[in-house]
Amino acid sequence: MIYSKDNSVHYTWGNGCDSWILNDSRNLSVKQEKMPAGTAEKLHFHEMAEQVFYILKGEAVLYINNEKFSVKTGESISIQPKSEHFISNESQDEVEFLVISSPSTHNDRIEIEK
C-alpha cells in the first residue's frame, strides 16, 4: 500500500502540531509532522531509538544534549539513543519534516521535567 498524509493515521500533539504515521512497525517508525510558528515539543529522550529528522519545508531548531542546531529545508540531523532533545519552530513560518526512528519510539519516550 502507498501511504501519504491523505490516507495515514493522523494525530495532534503539543500546541496545534500534526503528525501522520506513514509506517510504524516494531523496527521502524516514519512520521510526517507539521509544526506551526512558535511551537516546541517537550525535552525527552529515547532509551533504544535512534532518530533522523529530515526537514521538508522551513527551518527547525533542534536542541540535543544542550546544543542548538538549526536545520533547514533539505537537511537532516541524527539523534542517538539516550540523547536529551526536542524540536522547536522558532521561525515565523510552519515547519514540515519527517521523523524516522529505529526501532519504533512506541513506549520508548521518557520526558524530562525541568
What does this entry show, briefly?
It is built from no helices and 11 strands. It has 114 residues and is mainly beta.
Structure description:
The chain contains no helices and eleven strands. The chain has strands spanning 9-13, 17-24, 29-35, 44-45, 50-57, 59-64, 67-72, 76-79, 85-88, 95-102, 110-111. The strands form three sheets. The protein has a six-stranded antiparallel beta sheet with strand order 1-2-3-10-5-8, with no helix packed on it. The termini are far apart.
Task: Draw up the topology in text.
Blueprint: E1 9-13, E2 17-24, E3 29-35, E4 44-45, E5 50-57, E6 59-64, E7 67-72, E8 76-79, E9 85-88, E10 95-102, E11 110-111
Antiparallel strand pairs: 1-2, 2-3, 3-10, 4-11, 5-8, 5-10, 6-7, 6-9
Strand content: over 45%
Number of helices: 0
Q: What is the 3D form?
A: globular
Number of strands: 11
Low-confidence stretches: none
- What is the overall pLDDT average? 97
Question: Strand order within the widest sheet?
Answer: 1-2-3-10-5-8
Radius of gyration: 13 Å
Alpha-carbon distance between the termini? 42 Å
Sheet/helix structural class: mainly beta
Q: Helix coverage percent of residues?
A: under 10%
What is the N-to-C succession of helices and strands? Answer: EEEEEEEEEEE
Largest sheet: 6 strands, antiparallel
